[in-house]
Amino acid sequence: MTMPSNPTAPRALEGVLVLDLSRILAGPTATQLLGDLGATVIKIENPITGGDDTRRWGPPYAETKDGQSDLSAYFMAANRNKFSVAADLSTPEGQELVKQIAAQAQIVIENYKPRGLKKYGLDYAALSEINPSLVYCSISGFGQTGPNRERPGYDLMAQGFGGIMSITGDPDGAPMKVGVGIADVMCGMYATVGMLAALRHAEATGEGQQIDLALVDSQMAWLVNEGTNYLTSGKTPKRRGNGHPNIAPYNVFATKDGHIILAVGNDTQFQSFCRAFNCSDLAVDPRFATNPLRLENRVALETAVSETIGAHSSQETLAMLQAQGVPCGPINTVEEALTSPQAIERGAVVKVSAEATSAGTVNLLGNPLKFSKTPIQYVKAPPKFGEDTENVFDLLSQQMSQSQSQ
Question: Phi/psi of residue 241, each to 5°?
Fold first, then answer.
């Protein structure tokens, strides 16, 4: 576990102000990443509802000094490096505050229903009148257009509509979602890329723009090879459990005492697998000579591989495969993954100072980006609801001074 790195180091997005009108996971994932990169992120939260919905998506919660924790683990996963400001957008006061922030901001992100902010005078058309260079990212379930645009969007619904659930799970079982909110997370990643691209354009031309991004659109975009398999062949992809649609043997296999992953990606690696277990019969079997043939004879191949691996322990199997350079690996629990020497060396978990908590710190998942000149900084723990409301104008003043000095 690592502590934050040198806080005096330069940050890639220093001087960029982000107005965050998003909640749940997709938008907050994007703005947390922008905050990690050095942007000042002001998160607007509704005082009527007690803020971001995920503050109440627990347990578990971080234990706080006042005993009134709104820091659920879910909320903390996507809300570090942000300032929390309470503002009711349905009131003139709340609307005016948001407009004052937007006037100075480079980026606004929101995930209301399409046109949901128009009635408050906070849609792109209204805010771009105040700030023509504004990058305005709108995230919704189905986008700003199309027959489903009015439908609400949650990660599970996006996974179901967008096809990923139909190819996830046991071949004979029910459709299965991915274990985390991957549609939300990937949508947040697309949002980040889009906002940074639009920001570069705005800085070069002074011209802002609106980004229309849908959970379902982004989910279908990362169907990758399975989506293209369908477009190329016309055949609907099927669930294969842990198997791969295009290469074999590439699956989870049982050992004498557990399971391991075998990921043979080419013919040379298959021959290396055969050498690892002295399987001369498999090495010369014409059914398995090439990857297309192994796919055609997948059942026979995986039966033979299962029998071979099943005669050994997990440790023995991995050692023999690694000795021959065959891609393979264990199936770690979350605990095993996050406490592994590799995770520790790479800073997968970070300890961040958090004055509101009883422990004085919180443990969070680290950002995977490693910059040689502008390192990621963990300068602010996920905030308590509205903790920065009284200081918001000081933040804006500091931001203005910072922008003028650059």
Answer: 65, -125
Is 123 tagged catalytic? no
Crossing angle of the two packed helices 392-405 and 92-104, in degrees rounded to 10 = 20
> Among candidates 70, 37, 38, which has minimal Cα distance to 52?
70
CA 125/CA 129 separation, integer angstroms? 7
Cβ-Cβ contacts under 8 Å for 177 (sequence gap 6 or more): 155, 156, 159, 160, 164, 165, 168
Cα–Cα distance measured from residue 373 to residue 42, given in angstroms and rounded to the nearest whole number: 25
Q: Where are the domains of the chain?
A: 17-222+370-405, 266-326
CA 239 to chain centre: 23
Sorted by sequence, the CB contacts under 8 Å of residue 271 that are 6+ apart come out as: 283
9 has a pLDDT exceeding 90: no
**pLDDT band at residue 2 under the 50/70/90 scheme:** low
Phi, psi torsion values for 352, nearest 5 degrees: -115, 135
**pLDDT class for 400, splitting at 50, 70, 90?**
confident
Give residue 227's pLDDT band: very low, low, confident or very high (50, 70, 90): very high
Torsion of CA 338, 340, 341, 347, to 10 degrees: -10
Integer CA distances (angstroms), 339 to 3, 77, 318, in order: 15, 18, 20
Q: Are 202 and 137 in contact (CB under 8 A)?
A: no
Q: How far apart are the first and last CA of the chain?
A: 34
Give the integer Cα–Cα distance in Å for 385 and 71. 8
- CATH architecture of the domain with residue range 17-222+370-405: 3-Layer(aba) Sandwich (3.40)
The closest alpha carbon to 275, from 329, 320, 315, belongs to 320
- Please name the residues in contact with 164: beta carbons below 8 A apart, sequence gap of 6 or more: 177, 178, 182, 183, 219, 223
Active-site choice (20, 36, 184, 217) = 184
For the segment 244-256, what is each residue's pLDDT rounded down to a tens digit?
999 999 999 999 9
The average confidence (pLDDT) of the chain is: 95
In tens, the pLDDT along 84-129 reads: 999 999 999 999 999 999 999 999 999 999 999 999 999 999 999 9
**Verdict on whether the full-model pTM lies above 0.85:** yes
Q: Please state, in angstroms and rounded to a whole number, the distance separating the CA atoms of residues 324 and 333.
A: 26
The pair of three-digit structure tokens given for residue 36, joined into one six-digit string: 């990690």
